[in-house]
Amino acid sequence: MITENELAKKISKFSRSTFAHLPTPLERLNLLSSDLNRNDIWVKREDTTGLAFGGNKARHYEFEMPHILESGYDVIINIMDYYSNNARMTAAAANKFGITYVLILKNAKGKSKQGNRLLDELLGSEIHLLDTEESKDALEYGKTLAKNLIKSGKKPYLLQEHRFPEIVGTIAYVNATLELREQIKSKGIENVHIYGVAGRSLCGLILGAKNLGLDWKFTGVMVTDDPNLDSYIFNNAEYVKDLIDLEYTYSRDDLVIKDQYIGEGYGILTPSVKSTILKLARLEGLFVDPNYSGPVLNAIIDDIENDHINENDNIVFLHTGGLPSIFSYAEELTS
């Protein structure tokens, strides 16, 4: 185990540019708790980080952008799906640092300019729209763009060809553990049970909590099976532990993984997530998105209603943002 000061010192060796609105609030969801006969549902408002409508990626890019700049890159190339929050927030971060941003959007040709897709364009991204067939070779498309940029004298950073983007979110949320720990301590919250998307941000909290000796519990909700969790998070567990210089790392044993909220596929709104979005909006005046935070809150509600959560647990919902995507589902959410 290490102290909070020791953990902060280990994180401080990574270059960081502070632009996110931090700390984000930790708020009790009073009316939702009452509706579910609980008094202990909290939300960590990572949707309020301030960068282009907010989200967890703002913390990531506080560490990612200095890494890119210090390595001399002057163009970022990113390959993402049509609904991507990552695509939008990377565009905003690139703009803040004066870096050209090239965005390859998979399965996007012919889709309407709404939600994140609209914001990508307003942010001035150089957008390449791929259809379903072209999307199968998206990485090769990106590599070709990178080669052409190199020929023109640029130094492009193709995110999907580097390892640091695979672990920077975990590093950022090891750091966020210190912030959340202080908030939980100041509010006197015990028996902490954190629910979030099964991804790099949640693994960062697990990594931070384990090395600080905190007895927090974790549940990770899968929102897609592409990529699988091994390649997305678990294969980097030892690497990120060694990079930060920690004693313990994370594994599947550290969280309950729920895969029943993937539905018919990424980007497809399910009836239960729709109900969750409407419930939270009408009880708390707070929105969750259809692809990430919505399924996580859906899982919390289901676990409470089915008595799968210990009655003494204080539930912390990690709200990672994604709100612009709501506008892409206007017809489905109002029908």
CATH hierarchy, class of the largest domain: Alpha Beta
Rg (CA only): 20 Å
Largest sheet: 6 strands, mixed
The coarse silhouette is: globular
CATH third-level topology of the largest domain: Rossmann fold
Number of domains: 2
The total beta strand count reads 10
Secondary-structure-based class equals: alpha/beta
Individual helix count: 14
Strands of the largest sheet, in order across it?
Answer: 1-2-10-7-8-9
Low-confidence stretches: none
Chain-averaged pLDDT: 96
CATH architecture of the largest domain: 3-Layer(aba) Sandwich
* Series of secondary-structure elements, N-terminal to C-terminal: HEHEHEHEHEHHEHEHEHHEHHEH
Report how far apart the termini are. Answer: 52 Å
The residue fraction in helices comes out at: 40-55%
| Strand fraction | 5-15%
